[in-house]
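Handout, section B. The chain below has 234 residues.
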Amino acid sequence: MCVMKFSNLLPELSFPQSSLSEVFESHHQRYLETFPGWSIQSTRRKLAAFYWLKIVLKHFLVLTSVSAFLALFITHQQNLLFFQALIPASMLVFLILFISMYWPMYQLEFLPHLDTCAENYAGRQIEGIQACKKQQYSVVSLVLIQCVTMELAGMKNPLLNTATAQLFARQYGVSVKSVGPALQLILRGDWNRKSIRKQTEIIDDFETAKSYFLELSDDRAIQLLEKLQQKVLR
């Protein structure tokens, strides 16, 4: 038995299957603008309801209207008996279509496509978050930039204590536990010198900080970073 495609069975769809992903994204973005906490699952439910309340209803109404018009045109009967029989006949047709077309196509075609769109959209969101995390500066780079900026402003070096760690943590939105080791590394040169990996990470952090000041065309800041790097790595 050949299983027909959903788009072939219901050609009156407001959108083809190929663009369901675009419809999902556009609807989800519109809901997010109105309700900032709107979830992907909520959009999925909205589109599932859209299948029954718009796609199926439109298809059934068009089908019954055309059938009734053709019946009137062929039989030329416009008596009360015809219209009385139209309602139960329509209900019977809907039941047949529901069992043979609407429900199977919802389960076998529309719902799997909808679930795939929701999962793909969620996956792209996670990938975007991971990409943003990779693009963010490390805690060591942030503290390096902070220390050099303070020195350029003629301020004293930050103190190595909990208060300073808490201040930097609030300023940059990072954890206090991550700021403490960064301060110890920069101010005291306290790190495991036997670890080649750690040395590579420190060099990368300094290069990131240099790139920051390079974009600002601040040669003095770069010179301070180079001196500090030599001090930390020796």
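Note. Residues 16-135 form one domain. Compare this with the example in section A.
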